[in-house]
Fold these 4 entries.
Entry 1:
Amino acid sequence: MFDLPDSWVWDFWFADDGEQYHLFFLYASRALHDPEQRHYRASIGHATSLDLVEWTRGPDALVRGDAPAFDDLATWTGSTVRHPDGTWFLFYTGASLSGGGKNIQSIGYATSSDLVEWHKAPHPVLNAQAPWYETVDSGAWHDEAFRDPWVFPDPEGDGWHMYVTARAPHGPVEGRGVIGHAWSADLREWELREPLSVPSDDGFGQLEVVQVEVVDGRPVLLFSCLAEHSMPSRRPAAGGTWAVAADSVLGPFDISRAEPLTGDDLYVGRLLRRRDDGRWLLFAFRNRGDDGHFVGGITDPMPVEWVEGRLAVREALAGRRS
């Protein structure tokens, strides 16, 4: 498990350089006392591991910018990929406050040659825009949701895709969460495209920290959402991380098929394929303890497998079968 004694740790993502695994994570000081205050004090930390269990913390990757930058409130969740020329790109969420005091989120990036020293691009590359995506002007939601970029190469070699936590400008307010989509030829210039899912009466208000992978030959989309941000039909499941079996990593995605992968005690589930044996593993951060309070810290790896068309954590299945 990765944890820090003096800071809360929550959202995270990985990079694999072929020798070490790199963990990028959000953290904020426990001196805030109230964990709900952590979001506007978030920095992006960095740690490395050889075995995905023991981690060594290194220098921080990114901190928020100076006003009036698009990330002058906080730097939030992202993903890290390597360009064919060897340059590493760290895509991240920049948060800033609007004149009305609402959180506006945009997508920016930084580059590195070694995954340690990062240099930000000066301006965001994407933000929420009509007609496909809800903006703060709608007044329907507590923020302008456009965050958590997940970037991956096109399976056929046609550039790069980015999936984003976003909201549609129509549909039930607590079911407007959609998979935002953009495309790039070079990782620097991005073209915003229409979402790859639709709002639903059986949906979610936000599809946080999206990820798409092919696990044991089957495409699957992961996202996270708690009961209080979902449609009433979803609340009894008390899910944290959700999985959607798909026909392709390029979508479209039928969010009505989402099944809980973890309970709400674990959040922001991330899949990573272990290099030595090819096994797919799930990580998450500890969200709620037995007392209902926020915990923080990232779990040890948990193997996953397909069972009757659903992705499931193997230990959890073993417990139910016993």
Entry 2:
Amino acid sequence: MRGSDTSRDPCPWVILNDAGGAFCMGAIGGGLWNFIKGSRNSPQGERMRGAIASMRARGPVLGGNFGIWGGMFSTFDCAMKGLRQKEDPWNAIASGAITGGLLASRGGWKAASVSAAFGGILLALIEGVGIGISRLTSATPPPVAQPPPPSN
């Protein structure tokens, strides 16, 4: 594909990479979150034991949820790149909408459409911020100084 990002793995491998990265992020964040939550909800003498039990019980669940979202998003992103033969922000926006809608499809059409809209809007905001930051941090070339006109 023209203009493809060569710093990332090719499309079939990026799905596994992103799903694993999302699982790790969700498991670590979910573990910390549930450790604090378990500590706060446990009786005075059982805080550490309750924190560890909550972290072990719920951390991997949140990691799995993140991993599924990351894997589905990357799958749809690769599919959009293949179908459209382009790499642009619209692929990520569409992938976010499709992923959100599909994950909420068990709740019916209304839940799926709301979740799809939310996923598309969220990815549009993320892509917009990314484009804005890249434009702000890109180095603009300094203006070329014009030599003075020759004097006779």
Entry 3:
Amino acid sequence: MGRKWNNIKEKKASKDASTSRVYAKFGVEIYVAAKKGEPDPESNQALKFVLERAKTYNVPKAIIDRAIEKAKGNSEESYTELRYEGFGPSGAMVIVDTLTNNVNRTAADVRSAFNKSGGSMGVSGSVTYMFSPTAVFGVEEKTSDEVLELLMEADVDVRDIAEEEDSVIVYAEPDQFHAVQSAFKQKGITEFIVAEQTMLAQNYVTLSGDALVQFEKLVDALEDLEDVQQVYHNVELPEE
């Protein structure tokens, strides 16, 4: 599963390159999660999950607090969660998750990004069947055997554990996210390279030349959109 982790690293590196954009998107996601339930992560699992993700992206406390306070207030601003699916060059498949307060604007922006980058929008279900919802954790300074042992002690089942460079990556079912997280925390591990629920492709494609340039243009265009929260794909990106 190392190939899949490479794509997650690439995505995270891309987002880290524009922190103000990342922080703004997390602000919306935190607000929506807090607005749906109690604005307290201890009683709101959705909010707790978002805050754990925000931590891995070093989102400032001020932005988190501001979003939660906004949810506590009388703001009537509402957002809709929408998923778009589409295709890039040479068999590339793309999933785009959005949070929007203007559905028509978001649909037009996503469609335009696909069209301008040589891609095309697909119908609902045309791409997601080739992806698996997955909880992913990345930790450092541990071996795969040590991670396996602590998960077994906590009686937590996972799909796979892989070593890559100086990291150990854990892949689990989405509903095991908090169980895996708790197992790590019981052993004093609270810092993660990645701690999120993602969509991993069942098969990957490799692009080169103009097709790769075109695909990277598509991903950049989508991630630049204000309403786009996550972009998932099945392309094996080259290492930097």
Entry 4:
Amino acid sequence: MLKTITLNGIAWDHPRGYEPLKATSAAFSKIHPEVNIEWDIRSLKEFGDMPIEDLIGSYDLITIDHPYMGQANANNLLLPLDNLIPSYSLEKLKEESVGPSYQSYNYDGNLYALAVDAAALVSAYREDLILKLGLNIPKTRAELLDFYKKIPSSHKVAWPLCATDLWCSFLTICAQDGGREFMRDRTIDNRLGIQVLDELKIQLEYLHHESIKWNPIQILNRMAEENEILYSPFLFGYTNYSRSGYAKNLVKFGNSPTNPNIEVSTILGGVGLAISAHCEHPDVAAAYINYVAMAETQEGIYTKNGGQPGNLIAWQNEVNNGLCNNFFANTIDTMNKAYVRPQHMEWNKFQEQGAELLHNGLVKDISSDTIMKKLNQLYQSI
């Protein structure tokens, strides 16, 4: 009789986050009947903010955000995958990466996770309402400002600007206008930061008044169930809402508005699957992670069960594009030009505190130069 090996994993609280992992775990266990994989779920905010140290003692498999790589490396929190997964498999996955997703989990020569899920800020829109009103989706941020003025009072544009998402939008526009190196020596270019904050304050005047509180899921739920919000220029995309039958109304996705003068789209998101340094069965865990990340799994069972794959073969699959109303084809340009956040050890601490600082500044309408001064002082102190 085979001895059962149980792996415990921690996913995040959305069907995109846990359904494909449950489905791939069941499929993996059919191939390896001695392996049982069980999943717990944490909130989206906990996924972005909860320290890995709080998870590695309880879980073998951890879904993770790529900016944690420096912290994981410095404190030996995750197992490097380079010695657990054959090099030919990793080379293949690197070639099949959606934009910089694969490389974003590499730090100091060690690969700490596989990009099983790929995302960046994209735009979302109700195509039926846009066509009815004869509007054109803005391609640049200048066009976005004109777009607001063409919308009748019965409809709104919404932009997720809760602290976490405001931070991602701020960094996105900084990168669009200042290039990928707008941060140097733990300092954000001051003049650029002030310019971006001033623009965000102007944008707020046109947006749904709840935008400053909302995250992407809240906006997408409203877009899918009601007819008020017809467009969101910058949010993390979710293929679920572009699938027929998922919600009352179909939400389509495309590239976010950009600065046409600089070859940067938006900030990279997505999810990596990592192995805790405390895992007692690392070879089994690595075999499962490799199984989830491989093209055959990603373009098949992973996507079919609500997943948003990190493998390019799955993004190019015609069946998957049909299933998701061309979500993948319509946003691949954004993925290929995405901006990758820093990954040094204290980045997550700065990210969490900096996001709250920015959000508080916008809510209280503090001057942009004061906000930037405090933000850079915070970065230097960390």
